[in-house]
Queue: 2 jobs
Job 1
Amino acid sequence: MAIRLLFAFVFLLSACTDRGSTVLMPGAIGIGTIHRVFVTTERMPNETGWFGADRSEERRYLTVDV
């Protein structure tokens, strides 16, 4: 039972960490198909123009090419 609680705790703790951003390699652009995804968030934009961990009172809508 204790080992299950430990795994659950580690899993929940890791879900709250910052995932950062993903850097694409230029050669990966020609692989696969690019899809436009519509995203909505209630996060505040940070200094870099992306979204951080802080919450906003307004909803923001954007598109991301994946």
Note: Residues 2-15 form the longest helix (14 residues).
Job 2
Amino acid sequence: MIIAKKIYVFFLIVFPALLTGCGTTMGTTSAQRAALDSAATASPADATGNSVNAAILSQIPSMKTGENSMVGSVTVVAGAVYAAASSRRCRPLVVIDGGIRRERVACENDRNWFFSKPVFVKGESE
């Protein structure tokens, strides 16, 4: 009987609360969102001042999923666009430059694409 009561409480109270929490977005104002977007695009990890990175970002919308794209002297393979938890459209990228393979994620805010900060830093020789 105690187990049945715990299951009842879980499905009546806890489960709906979990679903509601996961299904809602954070209440950020447009000013806060603009500040976050600005910080993301100005990030040192982004390095959009680099002309190759700027070229990659400008060509992301036209890249075909899974195909090699030459951007300047680097090869870029774009993954499928997905909806991130931040409510942005994002795309995983593999950038191969001089035999060094880097995995990046680019996201789109209301204005343009930008590189997200790397969570894990790794380089692999090919």
Note: The radius of gyration is 20 Å.
